User: Fold this.
Amino acid sequence: MTWNSSIPLQAPNQLLLPPIAENHEPLVSLKQYSPQIEVYPVYYHEGLLGAMKDCLLRLGVAQRLKEASLLLPAGFRLVILDGYRPISVQQALYDRQKERLLSQGWIENDDMYAELHRFVARPSSDPAKPSRHLTGGAVDLTIAGPDGWLQMGAAFDDFSDLACTRYFEEISPILPEEQKFRDHRRLLYHVMAQVGFTNYSDEWWHFDYGNQAWAVITGNEAACYGGILF
Assistant:
């Protein structure tokens, strides 16, 4: 596998979500799960109300993250920023981003909500349509090397076009620094895709496994992870 090959285009998502055939895998802590995996619960460090001091994910997701970490070059590791997200935390993120948009001059209308929902899912306890992170099958992450976190050309939760996974694939001519950002994104994308994850194309840091978004992209007839409510 060549980690520096281009990130492929993603087919448009279908409108109908597949059903969920819950497999009841447990949530597991990523702390001390693997020496190749670092945990930095970003929303906890930001002081977001209700955010956990740990990152939890379904067992199958954790296992695949370990596999992905072993594909990285020597001296590199995955950094997990967020995993399972309770509804209360999803609501806090949703409200925070809505306030940001309003403060930027957006008017509360369909266009504003389309922009909001592009980056932050509406909190949902609907068993037929849970938000991705509520399933424990969505993970936000980056890569760290010997000199620290790799530069990706847009910070985590930079809700702009710069965050689109293929952003640096589509600009020409490309500057040397931009080429570095592109190559770092390629490395993350390909090690994750190699072990079965799919990427949310508007966010270079977001990957799915086992939830409905993953099932849509992979063509599976059903998701295996539904929402987890405490």
Notes: The domain at 27-85+135-218 is CATH 3.30.1380.10 (Muramoyl-pentapeptide Carboxypeptidase; domain 2). The chain has a mean pLDDT of 93. The radius of gyration is 17 Å.
